[in-house]
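Listing S7. Sequence submitted for prediction.
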Amino acid sequence: MEGLGTKAGPILFQFSPFSPNLVGGRGAFLEQLHGFLDALPQGPLYAVELRTPALLTEEYAAALHETGVAHCFNVHPAMTPLEGQMKLIRAFEQPALVVRWMLHAGLRYEVAKDRYEPFDRIVDEDPDSLERITLAAFDALVAELPVFVVVNNKAEGSSPLSVIRLAERLATPLLGSERD
C-alpha cells in the first residue's frame, strides 16, 4: 500500500464457484470469511466477489457491513444476476461501489473468447447490465462514494467499447440536466 498510496483501488478477494459443502457448509464459510475480513489491517478498501449464489445471504451482507468491506457486484453466468445482488446489497450503503462486468450471460469463458476475438467490436450488447451498472453508479455517486467498474472483453466483445457505452450512459442525464 505504501507504494501505491492514493492510486490503489480496492483489494479484491474473489471466490470462484465452489460447493459450500467443501468448507463445512455455508455457515462455516461465512463465519471464516467474517473472521478473515475482521482481521485485515485498516486503511485499504477491501471488496469480496462471490461466484456462488448460495453464499449471497443476509449473513454475508451483515459480515461485509460489520467489517466495512464492499461487495463486488459481478456480471458472471455462475452468479446471481445483478438484480438479485442489488436487492440484497444496496450499492449506496457500501463503502464504495465495486463492479466487475465479466462474462456475457449463457457463455463460458473459452466460448466467449472465441466468439469475441479480436475484441474490437461489440458483438452481444448487454443493455440490462449496462442499465443496472449505470443506476448503481448514480446511486453511489449521489451518496458521494467512490465507484470502480472493471469491464472484461467477454462482457460484450470489447472492453474499451463497453466502457465508452457506460461513460456515455452515465453522461446522458448529466448533460440533460445542464440544459434545463
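Caption to Listing S7: primary sequence and predicted C-alpha cells for the chain studied. The beta strands are 11-15, 46-50, 70-75, 97-101, 147-151. The chain has a mean pLDDT of 92.
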